[in-house]
Structures are given as structure tokens and as C-alpha cells.
Amino acid sequence: AYRDGYGPHQKPVVHDRTVLFLKEEPGLAPFFVVIDRLSAPNDRPHAFEIMWHLEECKLAIDGQNFTGDFGNGLGLAAATSDASAKITDMKGQHEPYFQGWMPIWIGGPHEHRPIPTPVVQGTFSGAKRIVTVLYPYRDGKNMLRGVKADPDPQATSFTLVLADGTERTIP
Q1: CA distances from 85 to 18, 44, 106, 123 (A)
Q2: Do 49 and 146 form a contact (C-beta atoms < 8 A)?
Q3: Can you list the positions of beta strands (E) in 81-126?
Q4: What is residue 16's three-state secondary structure?
Q5: Which is nearest to 130 in space by CA: 55, 49, 54, 74?
Q6: Mind listing the pLDDT tens digit for each residue in 8-36?
Q7: Among positive and negative, which fits the CA dihedral 40, 128, 46, 100?
Q8: Is residue 53 a contact partner of residue 102, using CB atoms and an 8 Å limit?
Q9: Per DSSP, what are the bridge partners of residue 118?
Q10: Which of 19, 75, 82, 86 holds its CA 20 to 30 A away from the CA of 36?
């Protein structure tokens, strides 16, 4: 959990992150679930960004999902539960701040190369839970269509929406 404040005015927002590795769900390949809980001591709107730095790949963004195609049938599918959030790619961004770069450390002063950096951007008031599923796949078989989750920070379950349209709720 990060509790030290954000921005130049040290806004008292708390970000709590839980990472789960689910490797024995029947019929599914092992995958990761990232649960972000955001809270503030007031009901004013607060902006958030959840960044995912990827190695070089062909990035595709579709609504609340993104995929990284690494070639040879290997990929990473990701879906966020926040239906009001927007996903953008900050690859090689200079303004309004430096983002979407990977350092190159081969002798001398370091250089950087741009990398795909999908960012989930949204707002919240009071408190919010955002569930992101990161589903690696091979043979070009992406099984993930989306994820649904209650935004209540006390909630514990989420529902995977699979490529064939079936849903699987995980407590």
C-alpha cells in the first residue's frame, strides 16, 4: 500500500494493490489478477492512472481490454473492470511527463527506447476497487474477453468473461 500522498500537494489518496497468481483454475492457463483499491478521505473526484510497461510487442487497445502480440503466437491479454476508465498508450511520451520508455544500459550515459505502455485512466470519489486480469496465451489463443467486478473496495469476487462468451466467477 502507498500512503504517502500524490502530486505536489501530497493529496491524501491511498493505493493498495494485491497481486494473485491463479495457476489451477480448471480449463484455464495460469494467469494473474491485480486488484487495486483506491481511497481518499473526501468525496471529491480524484484522477488515477494504472500503467503497464510491456516489452516490445504489437499493442492493440479495444475498450476496457488490451493485448500485446509478441509474435510466434505468444501474447498477453488484459482486461480492466472499470467500465468508465479509458485505456491509452503512452509509448515514448515526452509531454506532459516522460513515460513509456525503457532504459538501455550499454556503457556510457544511458539511453532509452520507447516501449508499449497501456495506461488505464479514470476517476474515483471516496473509494474504488479496480480488478485487472493479465492472461498470457500461446498459439494465438486468447481466452479472455473481459472482467467484471464490483467497485466496492470490500468486494472479493470477480467474473472472467471468456472468449466464447461464458462467464466464470472466482471468489
Answers
A1: 20, 17, 38, 8
A2: no
A3: 86-89, 101-104, 111-114, 118-125
A4: strand
A5: 49
A6: 777 889 999 999 999 999 999 999 999 99
A7: positive
A8: yes
A9: 89
A10: 75
